[in-house]
Amino acid sequence: MNGVSIADDVFNTGSAAAGWAVVDVETSGLRPHEHRVLSVAVLTLDPSGELMEEFSTLLDPGCDPGPVHIHGLTPQRLRGAPMFEEVADHIGTLLAGRVMAAHNAQFDYAFLAHEFARARSWLPVSQRMCTLALNRRVAPPTDDLKLGSLAAHYGVPQQRAHDALDDARVLAGVLRGSLSAAQDLGLALPLVACPPKQGAGYPPRVPKTRCAHRNPGRLARGAPLVQGMKVAFTGDTRTAREELIARSVAAGLNVMSSVSRHTSVLITNDSDSDSAKYRAARSAAIPVITEERFLGLLTTVQPGTTHTSPTTPTPSLPAQRRTCRPDSVQPLFGRRILVLGGPHDQASALRTRIVELGGAAAVNLSAGVTDVILLTDGTADRRMPHITARGLPVHDAHWLTTVTPSSDTAAQAETTAPATTLVLPRGGVLDLPTRHDNAGTWTVTASWGHQTGCEIDVVAFLLDEDDQVSCDEDFVFYGASESPDESVRLTTDGPSEQAVTVNLHTLPDAVRTVVIAAAIDGTGTFAQAGAIEITVTQETGAQALAQATLDAATTEQTLLLAEIYRRGPGWRVRAVGQGYDHQLGLLAANFGVDIIP
Is residue 199 part of a domain? Predict the structure, then answer.
């Protein structure tokens, strides 16, 4: 599914839904499985957008209310309020059969889902839509996409920020304005099926203690075990598996639940096993030993090399930074250009040239698009009527060879450069600013064509200094959307938009690089999927600090999008854009993760 187009009635989602349920919650923290909902508001709108019912209530969370300075909900105010299970049935009635709409909808959805689970019930939502994601598609001319900024843009009065009922009322107005703007652009609604797919073929994993040592490689014949070696077990064992794992971890070994080319040794008592681990080990020539042999070696494990301190200076490399204000104004500075039609390699080359000339290459039509380049068959694109209606300049491919800086462009660069999102070329690098008043959290959002015929999955790998995952849980994907310590999270804001959020302050010391990649699910290629745009932002709804548009060539099924990596005591982000012909499984194996088909 690639989104639902907006019909003449902008509130008609094309589904069987009976309208919208606009939701806002105030919470005691940011972790749904740990923190609680303090107040909730639900506004139901019929398919025509008319308000049907308002419901709001404070809730007794049975715990500390958390950041009172943000939501103002003190224990005194919450005293005597109902518990969630007392209102769960009514909230469920309001949500059932409707599309749930919220600003940063995955947050509200996750908190409500956990509250319903605590009440021994289930959240009756089959579809949700994020107004933040919708406005990323619309790209209105606002400084950021926070609720207050969007309210001002769409002419919606805001009385009390962080009050659930007022925020829900404001959100209902923002929803109406956003849907109308999306209709004018011919955009598709970023509806998300709930719950999201679980990632078939990816087994659940149980977090374990992270190994403090680097992997020294494979076990050699006659040699001892060394701390940091990656070991795996398969088949029945005489010693309880839990005891084997505990003793291995205590000895400094790294117990993995899968076998990859980085595995040091596989332990099994079955010399003729047909297990997937055994076959993988034999295929990769990984040593295989018996349980008895392993227990003997376990008594003499040799000291290993610990992960080096993350503050250790790394070798000096030339910075590949680009500035928002060029010394001489580039011809396309401040312009956002959409390429329509043509073969993928020609469109890709034009997008590369747009960036070289200082512009931004768009992958979808938004309010921020300033120009369109029309190639073969581009006139048949469904967006052309909206482009014509907006009066956007339309050019042919030769325009890029003749365009020159104009006085308008120079004036625009002079007035907008400080607030302009930095455009990174493929391979472009940017130092992430460090400030004392934020949590060091950065989000890389990937988006692609709303009508792309391919299903794309975004994933993340947490890698050590040897470019390996330290444990299986350092692979973040649809079926395991958070690392064990929640320092890296994957979110889905629509069928063509996924994001990876990284908290640099809580990343384990062993993690040196977070690699973010996209993979085609199935037999398609990125030539069919087209370009992927990534943006780098620091807080929810904030203006993007940087963006890049990345194309694979023709036959690639996996594309490295970005790397967030340590640079001495600081961090950098790199726009990568490297594609591979193979599927995700081989890329994961190179990083030390085996994806079981």
Answer: no
Residue whose structure tokens are 């749904």: 32
Asked if pLDDT for residue 409 goes beyond 70, the answer is no
Residue from 565, 554, 551, 506 nearest 527 by CA: 554
- What is the C-alpha separation between 191 and 451, in angstroms, rounded? 13
Task: Supply the angle between the helices 84-95 and 105-118 in degrees, to the nearest 10.
Answer: 130
- Provide φ and ψ at 38, rounded to 5°: -100, -30
Output the six-digit token pair for 193: 């099926």
Is residue 220 situated within a structural domain?
A: no
266 phi and psi angles, rounded to 5 deg: -110, 135
Q: What is the rounded CA–CA span in Å between residue 375 and residue 359?
A: 18
Q: Say if strands 488-494 and 497-503 run parallel, antiparallel, or are unpaired.
A: antiparallel
Query: What's the pTM?
Result: 0.81
Whether residue 402 is contained in a domain is answered as yes
Write out pLDDT tens, residues 157-170: 988 777 889 999 99
Q: Are residues 571 and 426 in the same domain?
A: yes
Q: What is the pLDDT of residues 512-558, one digit of tens each?
A: 999 999 999 888 888 888 899 999 998 888 889 999 999 976 788 99
Q: What is the DSSP string of 136-154?
A: HHH--SSS---HHHHHHHH
pLDDT tens across 445-470, in order? 999 987 667 889 999 999 999 899 98
d(CA 220, CA 223): 5
Residue 594's closest CA among 261, 245, 248, 231?
261
φ and ψ at residue 209, rounded to 5 degrees: -65, 130
111 and 58 within one domain: yes
Minimum mean pLDDT among 202-206, 432-436, 529-533: which range? Answer: 202-206
Q: How many domains does the chain have?
A: 4
Instruction: Answer whether residue 205 shows pLDDT above 50.
Output: no
Strands (E), 148-193: 188-189, 191-193
Q: From edge to edge, which strands make up the β-sheet containing 558-567?
A: 429-431, 570-580, 558-567, 513-521, 455-463, 475-476
User: Is 106 in contact with 127 (CB distance < 8 Å)?
Assistant: no
* Rounded CA Rg of the chain: 26
- Residue 5: burial class (beta carbons within 10 Å; 0-12, 13-18, 19+): middle
More confident: 438 or 394: 394
The domain in which residue 161 lies consists of 4-193
Tell me the pLDDT band of 17, cut-offs 50, 70 and 90.
Answer: low
Read off the CATH number of the domain in which 51 is found.
3.30.420.10
Q: Is 579 helix (H, G, I), strand (E, B) or coil?
A: strand
106 and 245 co-located in one domain: no
Cis peptide before 195 (omega within 30 of 0): yes
Hey, is 574 helix, strand or coil? Answer: strand
DSSP state of 539: S
* Residue written as token pair 């959409």: 338
